[in-house]
Amino acid sequence: MKMALRTELSEWAPGRVRCLGLCSLQTLRLALSVVLSCCCSPLHNFLTYLCSYRTQFLQTNRNSGSLQDHTAMLARIQTDSVVEMLRKRYLNLHFEIVAMSTTGDKILDTALSKIGEKSLFTKELENALERNEVDLVVHSLKDLPTSLPPGFTIGAICKRENPHDAVVFHPKNYGKTLNSLPEKSVIGTSSLRRAAQLKRRFPQLEFKDIRGNLNTRLKKLDEKEDFSAIILAAAGLRRMGWENRIGQILNPEDCLYAVGQGALAVEVRARDEEILDMVSALHDGETVLCCIAERAFMRHLEGGCSVPVAVSSMLKDSQLYLTGAVYSLDGSDSLKDTMQTGVNYPQQNEEGPNDDTQYVGITAKNIPRHAQEAAENLGLELASLLLSKGAKRILSVARQLNDAR
To answer: What is the pTM of this model?
Structure first.
């Protein structure tokens, strides 16, 4: 694996290090050990970022440090956004970025819904957390299961980017929409959720799996004639600076989004109070409450990437709104409903700091407990409503058909 080193060691060793180019992991470690041995001033309060192709994690080492990077652009951009937020709050901390890939990153020839592993993008990184090799993991929240392994918690959820799905068209189809594409046009998506809803909404189109990171999918779209368009998360495209490739944003009437989509989550050890207190400053209250409701809905349905479950949520005038739906694989059978609840969410937590209570894997001490409880109950009640109408049957059939494919 290759990686690039971006250094911020110059304030510790002025003039010695400005930048290191591409090198192997082993060479990088050796070079860093030499650099650090030459530093004249003591190193202090050092935090290290390690990132995978989908997720990133942070390591604390208060006596030494290094800065590394990897080749996945979106992972780096997401890492940098979290680093920048922490840097503004903790001016004396220094950060390191190191490559790590996960199971989900390595399996690119099989649809995620067929792999059968729940923690596709988290397991390896949580192992590093458990071994105290790292202290902080940054995920796309939609990649995190609704039940975390014992000893871990989501310590922060950053302000959400646009959670909706976007359509990127083949160059020959610029200016079109899904509805105006020719009949039998092939649309690429690796998501059962997207495919089920869009088959229902646009029955004249065909849908085909497409895997890979954003760069890979766009290359497959542009350089071949296999796809007329592909469906991607708008948040990823915008973080990459590729808004100009967005040909259509899918509104909730066309396609509800995935639980947690568009939000970045920071996972830590549940008992590491120092790190937990530090990252809690990154919590965005509105995003936290929406995502608690969404995750509670998903968990009560026992959903996941192997079944089509979709949501949409909004906090407005102290009212939290949640729409949730389940679909058959072909979209022909579905259940959808909307509920709301009052959360009376203030700008500041007037109750004072909460305890370490988790709500669907999230610890948010700076968000009022009553608001978190209301959000969780909203998700549970909406899921219970759909279950009472037959959601379990729809999801069970969808899971069986997906396993048989």
So the answer is: 0.80
* CA separation, residue 58 to residues 19, 138, 141, 142, 356 (Å): 21, 8, 16, 19, 21
What torsion, rounded to 10 degrees, do the Cα atoms 84, 85, 91, 94 define? Answer: -50
- Residues 156 and 280: beta-carbon distance below 8 Å: yes
- The owner of tokens 């594409």 is 181
Cα 19 → chain centroid = 30
Concerning whether 143 is annotated as a catalytic residue, the answer is yes
The active-site residue, picked from 69, 105, 143, 284, is: 143
Maximum distance among all Cα pairs of the chain, rounded to whole angstroms:
69
For the chain, domains (ranges, CATH) are: 2-101 (no CATH), 104-162+259-404 (3.30.160.40), 165-249 (3.40.190.10)
**DSSP-derived 3-state class of residue 231:** strand
Model confidence pLDDT, tens digit, residues 50-85 = 333 333 444 444 332 222 222 378 888 887 899 899
Helices 391-404 + 369-388 axis angle, to 10: 80
